[in-house]
Amino acid sequence: MATEGSQGAPRQARALTLVRNPRLWLFPSILCALVAVLLSLLYLGGIVNPMGHLHRLPIALVNADQAPPPPGQPVNLGTQLTRAVIAGTPGDTVHWRQTDDAGARDLLASGKVYGVLLVPADFTASVTRLTTGGATERPTLTVLTNPGLGSLGSSIAAQIAQNAAHQASAAAGKQLLAAVPASGARGPDTGATARLLLADPFAVTTQVGHPIGSHSGLGLSAFYFTLLAVLTGFIGGNIIHNGVDGALGYSDSEIGPWHTRRPTVPISRTQTLLLKMVMTAGMMLVTTSLVLLCTAGVLGMDAPHQALLWVFAYCASLAVGLGVQAINAAFGGIGQLVSMFVFIALALPSSGATVPLQAVPGFYRFLGVFEPMRQLSDGIRAILFFDARSDAGLARGWTMIAVGVVLALAFGFGMTRYYDRKGLHRWTPQPSD
């Protein structure tokens, strides 16, 4: 029973009285603490030590040296170098994909490797000239980068390839210097030049292997465009969810000092979910168009295949929005928190868009198999940087969008129909007697 004052009006509760009630603190405290711990571990755990968690980062290794082996050696020097690079890689940190030059270019163009280490065709001949004093320049190994896969991933691959090349050069230099006295390199000038070159016989140069536009955020525009698609679906879905509940009288509408409660519209949970999903499909048409207009039109983001980009981004936002509506319908009051973890908290660190999945702990690689942002970022990256090739991640992106829509519809309507059959109707809160 509410306590009445001297004029018969209910006595209002006071904050300082209620704050001493431990039951009022219990649920929010536990939930806020869990959110803080989980978000801290999830976000920082994926980026704090990328080199320490490196696992099979794909880098192409090309040996274009087809010269015959030097006298007394079973294989040419290019083959010896590539074998030394592979053998000198610790553990499973790198997945060296041995191929030819054309194959490496295709791997770069499809986003399947983060970089390339290229041994030139005249490598054996160039090194041989060093040992005979007939050369004044070192043979050059070339590292090709792939900025379309993100600046960090491309930088890690370039660093690994450069270090591997320099280590191979130092090891080869010791062997070649030991062979100089028997090689016939005579004369003070020629001998001094040969020894200087042989101490570090291989030069290493770095080039962009698959160029991207100057308005691409150093390869990060794909990630941020994906984030926009996910956020418009997530935020838009929750706005529609709250707006519909307020319009149907199932929740209060409060903006500043203005508070309204509309008459309750008798409607089943299933029909309410259908209404929210239809509105989500319509609203995503608007938000996707505005996102593309702002990013490509106003800001000048490099965006080839704009029609395909719009269709893919719309379907991505729609899949997220439908998922939000399904989760909210199933979980009620904590649905927005659950959907935040599904589509944001777990998705961002496992997307592989900023830090390669090969450079994060195994837990995030596991999440990346099914978390939506990884699939969506691969698809948008393929459209923006890899000529919309299906094997660059676009086909997988379409597949996962379709799977996500089916799961959202099946889960959402399955739960609401179950609630309706059980007679678990939604009731508006009533004041106590």
Can you characterise this structure?
- It is a single chain.
- The chain has 433 residues and is of the alpha/beta class.
- The protein folds into 2 domains: 57-208, abc type-2 transporter like fold; 220-421, no CATH class.
- It is built from 14 helices and 7 strands.
- Strands 2-1-3-4-5 form a 5-stranded mixed beta sheet. A two-stranded antiparallel sheet has the order 6-7.
List its traits:
abc type-2 transporter like fold, alpha/beta, 2 domains, 7 strands, 14 helices, two-stranded antiparallel ribbon, 5-stranded mixed β-sheet, 433 residues
Q: What percentage of amino acids are in beta strands? A: 5-15%
Major β-sheet strand ordering: 2-1-3-4-5
N-to-C order of helices and strands:
HHEHEHEHEHHEHEEHHHHHH
Shape annotation: elongated
Give the averaged pLDDT, no decimals: 88
Low-confidence stretches: 182-190
Count up the helices. 14
Largest sheet: 5 strands, mixed
Give a topology summary.
Blueprint: H1 15-18, H2 22-45, E1 57-63, H3 77-87, E2 94-99, H4 101-109, E3 115-119, H5 123-131, E4 140-145, H6 151-179, H7 188-199, E5 203-208, H8 221-247, E6 253-255, E7 258-260, H9 269-298, H10 306-331, H11 335-345, H12 362-367, H13 372-385, H14 394-421
Parallel strand pairs: 1-2, 1-3, 4-5
Antiparallel strand pairs: 3-4, 6-7
